[in-house]
Amino acid sequence: MTDSFQEKLAGELAGIESADLRRTVREVASAQGARVRLEGREVLNFSSNDYLGLANHPALKESAVQAIENFGTGAGAARLISGSQSPHHELENVLANFKGTESALAFSSGYAAALGTIPALVGTGDVVVLDKLVHGSLVDAAKLSGAKLRVSKHNDLADLARILEWAAEQGGRTLMVAESVYSMDGDLAPLLNLVELKEQHGAWLMLDEAHATGLYGEGRRGVAEEFGVAARVEVQMGTLGKALGAAGGYICGSNELVDLLRHRARSFVFSTAPMPAQAAAARAGIKVVESAEGEERRTRLWSLVDELKNGLIGLGWQLPVVQSAILPLMVGAEAEAIALSEQLLEAGVFVPPIRYPTVARGEARLRITVSAAHSSDDIKKLLEVLGERKR
């Protein structure tokens, strides 16, 4: 490689460093859980999206091991060629039943699900309307589609209605994209209103339930179930790697939707299938979520969230309205967020700083996530450490 190439990259990295945006990939030498072994020592973990504590659950591990015994480690090819082994079909059947839809399609990741789906549904001459705070994968997918892209102010129904009215006049399809639980602020979308608006303006709704699946609704299917509008959402998206304890992403919806995606979702068509063990673990995760144990874990999670929320408020921390297992401690400056995170880590508590481009410039924060794997003592330890830093 030429010196000019290396110099150019070094210059880019120097700019990242000077903006307090340099990141490191920290090595974890243990399973995910309330405590992890991080860079040589055990720390209390408040960084994970393993909301129900299933990432190290015996049932998921047993299913993965059994799938390796029966199907090996690799899928061999893209599923349309030779890689569609039984665990993938079984997972999709379970997913469709769980979400109450006609069909489901599993992807290697949530990112792949987004990247494959939006360009398969809309293109040149169409409009994609994104909430300002949707995940980066949804933004990338919308850009890739070639459709006209419009961004509405976060959870601002008046702004959204204005954009949808404009989009309806363009003569093409309109796809609204929202999250049910927003990953960095932890707030909920006004889903009833979103459904009503999209129906008034002839739009479709793609709803990402990544941070909601397993946690909301009588059957723990997500916010769409909680608000009774699941049947009115055209595209239900989610992840298998958060509350479900495994890895991968999915799209649930009508038979026609899934059939179309099998033909046009390029991240599905041109990707080797995930290893069968991944699909088997995800299937087991859904079964746990649907069980009495799943309900017990969800109940414990919300109890811990309330305990932490009340404790933080008691310490004088300013919090948004807490609607999820995500509690952002707003700091502001990137350097200050890094410093607070490092202070917590020194005290044995892992809460990483969240900075641009994950959030807007000047809105750096510590993103605390609670898991059913935590105990009340874990919450007390976190509050103790944060209390010392607050003083």
Short description:
The chain has helices at 3-18, 58-71, 79-83, 86-99, 110-121, 136-145, 157-168, 191-200, 223-226, 255-264, 266-269, 276-290, 292-315, 334-346, 376-390; strands spanning 35-38, 41-45, 103-107, 127-131, 148-152, 174-179, 204-208, 235-239, 249-253, 326-332, 349-350, 353-354, 364-369.
Overall SS class: alpha/beta
Shape: globular
Strand content: 15-25%
**What's the pLDDT, averaged over the residues?**
95
Please count the beta strands (DSSP E, at least 2 residues each). Answer: 13
Spatial strand sequence of the major β-sheet: 3-9-8-7-6-4-5
Annotated CATH topology of the largest domain:
Aspartate Aminotransferase, domain 2
Stretches with pLDDT under 50, minimum 5 residues: none
Order of helices and strands: HEEHHHEHEHEHEHEHEEHHHHEHEEEH
Q: What's the level 1 CATH class of the largest domain? A: Alpha Beta
Approximately how much helix is present in the residues? 40-55%
Main sheet: strands, sense, barrel: 7 strands, mixed
Cα-based radius of gyration, to the nearest Å: 21 Å
Separation, N- and C-terminal Cα atoms: 51 Å
The CATH architecture of the largest domain can be named as 3-Layer(aba) Sandwich
Helical stretch tally: 15
What count of domains describes the coordinates?
2
CATH homologous superfamily classification of the largest domain: Type I PLP-dependent aspartate aminotransferase-like (Major domain)
